[in-house]
């Protein structure tokens, strides 16, 4: 069915583009070997990209509303990105200046389009696994390009960078979902709380100041001192995301964020006390990479859940990703100033660690309260919106059966269709039975779970799996 194909598209379309983004404009290995030195000396190409990237996120979060256009947004962005990357193969170094700005704008639009699909069509109980898979494969592509950049000519690596974009284009061309454009606009389950959005953005901004500091001060020192340290760091990052893929849905909802911030604090302590030792740098780098693996995953999954709750994917992802990137840029700037001064590095990093921990322990409990309070209304809305699927899977419901009760194969089939957003009439047509037969099955299902209506069954399906 279309919904299943759409979920496959969501899984396979992002890693290729994400891998290209990490490898080329995001100060990646292709950028480092292929960007012309004269242009690099006169202009900060990465700053041009980052500024355009962040401003587009911010603008998109403020003005984009209609999620039905997300596939068109992705298609246009991908075409422009591919053509721009191809023009860099021409022998005109000045092309890099507009190219980085174009990359910044259209990569943001592609990601925001994808985020609409990710937040609205992926069940909450499956969101963590899908995002972990996307992050893992995107970083694998990034590591592959680092290997290629170490022994291939710059132009060859730049030409090979077209392959992930071509692959993403092939995937996009094979998936047609006309019903997205024909469906009705999203109806929000509740008014968007602007204070919530502001606090989320500030929270992300503070957390990712640490990322800018880390990649400006700590990681370059490790990479210079230890051969292959870069690959060690990314192996740690990918392994932690893989562990979260396997075990993440069994953990308490906010365990990753608390663990990540704890690791950040310990990493800063390690940096302060052991930075003169190679082993100390390895320990510090390991804790930082593990922390940001969990932070990255937590932020994407949380934003997806909030965008689902409020039916506002552009607002949440656009503004939050702008805050994310702004935090990294500002942290990088502060790190550069600290390196130039040569003083107070340990003190300043300790201050940033304290700010992060303080922000987490203040904001996360409040965020949990907001999500818990608004979940029932959002889930009820998801069963009637033509653009949304339901959340949960029958397997997650079986643990909530009344002792001694078991589901029949037909009841499991009906529950699966309910959680995908089908109405009673649709289920009857699909199973070739009468609507009255479906009502009888539903009465038996409700009894076995001790609930009275469909809304309660849907809420039960997501219990304990809101932000995976």
Describe the structure.
- It is a single chain.
- This protein is an all-alpha fold.
- It folds into three domains: 1-175, Up-down Bundle (Growth Hormone, Chain: A), CATH 1.20.1250.20; 192-382, Growth Hormone, Chain: A (Up-down Bundle); 394-461, Winged helix-like DNA-binding domain superfamily/Winged helix DNA-binding domain (Arc Repressor Mutant, subunit A), CATH 1.10.10.10.
- 78% of the residues lie in helices and 0% in strands.
- The protein has 21 helices and no strands.
- Helix 5 (70-87) packs antiparallel against helix 9, helix 11 (194-225) packs antiparallel against helix 14 and helix 12 packs across helix 14.
- The longest helix has 38 residues, at 345-382.
- The two termini are 26 Å apart.
- Mean pLDDT is 78; it is low at 376-393 and 463-468.
User: Briefly, what CATH class of the largest domain?
Assistant: Mainly Alpha
Radius of gyration: 24 Å
Helix/strand/pairing category: mainly alpha
Describe the biggest sheet? none
Helix count equals 21
The CATH architecture of the largest domain can be given as: Up-down Bundle
Q: Overall pLDDT, averaged? A: 78
Q: Under CATH, the topology of the largest domain is which?
A: Growth Hormone, Chain: A
- Alpha-carbon distance between the termini? 26 Å
Contiguous low-pLDDT stretches (5 residues minimum) are 376-393, 463-468
Number of extended strands = 0
**Fraction in beta strands:** under 5%
What is the total number of structural domains?
A: 3
Net shape:
globular
The helical percent reads over 70%
- H-E string: HHHHHHHHHHHHHHHHHHHHH
